[in-house]
Amino acid sequence: MKKILLSMAALAFVLVFASCGNDKNAPVITLPTDEATPVFDLGDAEAALAGVTANDDVDGDVTANLTVTGLDYAGAATLTYSVVDQVNNEGTIGREAIISTGRLGGHYDVSSKDVDDPEAAPVSYNVTAAKANDPAKLIISNFFNADWVLTLDAVAGQASMTNESNPIRASYADGQVLVYATATYAPTSNPAQYTILVVNYNFRDAVLGDVIATYEDTFELQVK
After folding, report:
1. What's the mean pLDDT in 25-32?
2. Domains held by the chain: number
3. pLDDT value, residue 155
4. Is 14 inside a domain boundary?
5. Model pTM?
6. Residues 122, 206: one domain?
7. Is the pLDDT of residue 203 over 80?
8. Are residues 108 and 217 both part of a single domain?
9. Is residue 10 a part of any domain in this protein?
10. What is the percent of the chain where pLDDT is above 90?
11. I need a surface site. Which of 70, 157, 163, 202 has the fewest CB within 10 A?
């Protein structure tokens, strides 16, 4: 009897080993059938994984092992779904999505410095950020003036916004100026923050077009 049990155990081991050795196929990931490009909030992996399944021809259902990346910046994005089976065969698939700016809404403290006068102390003020009808855009209001509104395009690494074609007209000193703003983005090392936003302003004489002042504003967008 003992020999029979040992033989059965050895056979089972051989079968399992052979099965693993022959397992060359990666799991297959199946995405939901979307009629429109899905919209997800920043960092919301749970929502992005909803309805996505993964199946392996040896391990069976491996949906619980799925991971997704690409939710780190707002705007148009390609999400990457990945899953591995017990022998590390990896299955991946891409999915086009829009990552919403909605979680970046709120009030922010801004540090503004006069680029033309490095010795001048920065001036602090507050702006309001809110999502636009387009989920990939962010509306920033109260820059310098309560009437000013800037619409920032997709908040992605190295993305930018410029209002060269639609400058802001404002009073400055004794005359009228056109204000041209350019926004750029950079990653922040603080995990509680999302990205550093820097807005550069050129104040140009509305008649002559000469640059008469330059300011640089900095604040950090934060996922709420």
Report:
1. 95
2. 2
3. 64
4. no
5. 0.69
6. yes
7. yes
8. yes
9. no
10. 32
11. 157
| CA distance linking residue 104 with residue 120, whole number of Å | 30
Domain presence at residue 177? yes
pLDDT number for residue 15: 46
CA 197, 137, 150, 131 dihedral sign is: negative
Owning domain of residue 83: 26-99
pLDDT at 80 over 90: yes
CA distances to 161, 167, 179, 216 from 209, in Å = 21, 12, 10, 20
Tell me the CATH number at 74.
2.60.40.10
Longest dimension (CA), the chain: 105
Average pLDDT, integer, range 25-50: 93
The residue out of 99, 117, 134 marking a domain boundary is 99
Q: Are residues 201 and 92 in the same domain?
A: no
Q: Residue 51 — pLDDT band, cuts 50, 70, 90? A: very high
Query: CA 52, CA 30: separation in Å to the nearest integer?
Result: 6
The verdict on residue 74 lying in a domain is yes
